[in-house]
Amino acid sequence: MPVLLCVGLSHKQVPIAVREQLAVSAEDLPGRLARLRGLAGVREAMLLSTCNRLEVFAVADARTCADDLLRDLGPLAAEHALTRYEDEALLHLFRVTASLDSMVVGEAQIQGQVKEAHARALEAGACGAALSRALAAALSAAKRVRTETAIARGAVSISSVAVQMAHKVLGDLSGRAVLLIGAGEMAQLAARELHAGGASELLVANRSAAVAEALAQEVGGIAVGIAELPALLERADVVLCSTAAHQPIVTRELVGRAIKARRYRALFLIDLALPRNVEPAANQLENVYVYDLDDLEGVAAQNRELRQQEVQRAEAIVLEEITAYARAKQERAAVRVLAHLRAQAQALADAEVERTLSLLGPLNERQQKSVRSMATAIVNKLLHGPTARLRGEQGGPLSDAAAELFGLQDAPDVSGDDAERRSSPEEQPQDASRKPQADVLSLTGRK
Amino acid sequence: MATLLVHIALLAYAAAAAAYLVWLVRPRQALVSAGRTLLFAGLLLHLGSFAAAVSLSQGEGLARAGFGSDAWRGGQLFSLLAAATVAGYLALDLRYRLPVAGAFVAPVTVAVMVPAHLVHGGTRPIAPELTHSLALAVHVFSAAAGTAALALAFALSLLYLVSERQLKSKQPGRLFARLPSLELIERVGWHLSVWGFVFLSVAIATGSLVSHESSGSAFPIAPKQGFAVLAWALLAGLIQARLVAGWRGRRVALLVVAGFLLLVGTYAGLLAAPQHVSAAAAALIAPGRG
Fold first, then answer.
1. Which of A57, A223, B68, B193 is the most buried (most CB within 10 A)?
2. What domains sit in chain A, N to C, each tagged with a CATH number?
3. Within 10 Å of residue A388's Cβ, how many Cβ atoms?
């Protein structure tokens, strides 16, 4: 029986200093996949290389193939890597895809990375039906986790919390103006995110006109003079501050005047500077919202806590999906045994009918048809009970017993799952490329 | 028939309320879809009950007010208001997708409908002069539409106050993710307030006509009229402040809440009027008194 293996390491085992040495680039990936596929006993393989993990998922003939996979990762990786077998490997695949094993639990990027790794493995001819089905089930579970729990809700980084809060106050950012004061990196990042989020105007103010110009070019904004601050506060809907000033440059009085001039249109001030650039008392003004670093970190921490509270529900969904996947796999096995059994019995009956007909001498067409019908009826009646029991059991020990009892293990696969049974590239049929394609469709079709 | 339909509608509203409330705890899109569908189904049944009341009732029913009805019940009035509010919410939801408002509207609809249909109130006569009064029909329609618009504006104002408080305190709660942006709540609430004001103005003007037709006095002094005029004046002031001084946000939300509570006082005044009176006095407590 083929087994699912997982060999690799993640942020949980090694620090970034090690991971960055092991990362596999896009250029090297086809070669690495070909090498994995060439290992003896390895039927299918996929390599997942992200900034947080380097893991190989493989379908192999035996558990011992894990040693070869481990060696292939290299000595540095082998020193820290973990090996998971069968159920444990399957659970890990589902948990990784559902972002339950991520550094930031609930982050969405991992699902795209898993899909990308699968696509590359298919392109390289390293991935077949068995791994594709497991991945499709894992992605389906991940989708359920995302939609049925709050695990992915709420931003968890300072810049994304700032953007989330801006959306909460102002809604759609299209047509809005963002004012960036200072040249702090986090503020630049948030400004870029706001601009990408639809803000139509990005104004960049700095004490130095040259710095403002350079920064405006870098972030795709318009340089403005800091002296125009009162007018800029009337114009901008989001203000990002990150200057090195020792005194607040955006005072309550200044904001109070601006908000009246704005006819009380909401103003969102994000203060990413230390010491703070915006007078905290400005938050008391109506329709003015001031968030400093501590406030943003507080929201991020709260979101992280909410995500953690959802982990238990997400784990339950993953287990449900794994159970459903295992049941579907057993059903496929039962159908295969049934098909073999019926084909074998019918072949025997047909052979006996032909022998009997030749012994009986000349019979008319109606008589021959009756003899053939009788043989088919005997086969059907004999197999009715076992068929019903195998179907009822949906795979499992009974189908294995039936396969052994009737000598079906070596029968050719008639269920369309032959890709699972192939063990070397030479055994790949001419249209092998079509099989993975079908699995790609089934994978993406369940999204 | 009408009673059966309205009871099934009530069950649909109750199921919708349950779906929306569960959604607040378990944010699954399927619950929102179920709530929306149930509310829509409930509304169709509810409107069907009005149609059945019009076709089957010979001389009673708010659905026939101004078109030959000679009596009505308090329950029918609340039923009409509930249907108008649900219709208004579904229209809003179609445009803006506001399930969190559904979590307010659906339970309130049930709370209004249950006493209206399970507790039997006394029949109130309509003055003979008003049984075929077009002004009464317009008055009832505009009062229902205005109340529905202001009820929704009230719901959004409460949402605004909760959301604004969370943003100001920098302590977003568990429901924060389900709340729409302040800007959207404020904008939709403002539009609803304006529509509420327009319908309320029409209701007061036609009510005055109705009152004149039935009692000879266009501006009778009574709690119902007093609350209605106060609500109208407050909304007029709110619109003026918004257009002239640019008022927005918290203070506007508080004014809308106050305006709606005054409107509730209007209905309390209507229902608190004596039920068994002479034909002449009946004209003074009829819904068309404005």
1. A57
2. 3-148 (3.30.460.30), 158-301 (3.40.50.720), 332-445 (no CATH)
3. 10
H/E element holding B69?
none
| Structure confidence by residue, pLDDT tens digits, A194-209 | 888 888 889 999 888 8
d(CA B255, CA A232): 31
Residue of B183, B185, B238, B251 to mutate when probing chain A, most A C-beta within 10 A? B183
Interatomic CA distance for residues A48 and A277, integer angstroms: 44
CB atoms < 10 A from the CB of A285, how many?
Answer: 17
The answer to whether the CB atoms of B179 and A168 lie below 8 A apart is yes
CB contact under 8 A, B177 and A287: no
Does residue B286 have a pLDDT over 70? no
- Side-by-side strand order, sheet with A82-85: A42-49, A53-60, A3-10, A82-85
Distance CA A9, CA A22 (A): 10
Q: Which residues of B touch A316 (CB under 8 A)?
A: none
Tell me whether 0.95 is exceeded by the ipTM. no
Closest CA of chain A from B87, distance in Å: 25
Q: Residue B288: its pLDDT value, please?
A: 40
DSSP letter for A104, please: S
Pair A110, A50: CB distance under 8 Å: yes
Inter-chain residue contact B183 with A171, CB threshold 8 Å: yes
Q: Minimal Cα–Cα distance from B37 to chain A, Å?
A: 20
Q: In the A/B pair of chains, how many CB contacts fall below 8 A?
A: 63
Which residues of B fall within a CB distance of 8 Å from A283? 168
Q: What is the pLDDT of residue A424?
A: 38
pLDDT digits (tens, 9 = 90+) for A296-339: 989 888 888 888 888 989 999 999 999 999 888 877 777 777 78
Distance from CA of B255 to the nearest CA of A (A): 15
The sign of the CA dihedral A122, A125, A129, A134 is negative
- Catalytic, A51? Answer yes
Record: contact A171-B251, CB cut-off 8 A: no
Instruction: Name the interface residues of B facing A (CB cutoff 8 Å).
Output: 26-29, 163, 167-168, 170-172, 174, 176-177, 179-184, 245-251
pLDDT the model gives residue B162: 93
Model confidence pLDDT, tens digit, residues A245-267: 889 999 999 999 999 999 999 99
| Token pair 């002031």: residue | B237
Write the DSSP assignment of B7-52 as a string of letters: HHHHHHHHHHHHHHHHHHHS--HHHHHHHHHHHHHHHHHHHHHHHH
pLDDT the model gives residue B287: 41
The dihedrals phi and psi of A293, each to the nearest 5 degrees, come to -60, -45
Q: What is the pLDDT of residue B74?
A: 64
Q: Does A147 touch chain B (CB under 8 A)?
A: yes
Interface check for A268 against chain B (CB to CB < 8 A): the answer is no
Please enumerate in sequence order all residues whose Cβ is within 8 A of that of A1, keeping only pairs 6 or more positions apart, or say none: none
Structure confidence at residue B72 (pLDDT): 65
- Which pair of tokens denotes residue A183? 């040249």
Residues 6+ apart with CB under 8 A from A384: none
Flag if B251 and A286 touch (Cβ within 8 Å): yes
Contact: B247, A264; criterion CB under 8 Å: yes
Pairwise CB contact (< 8 Å): B248 & A266: yes
Q: In chain B, what are the domain boundaries?
A: 1-125, 127-290
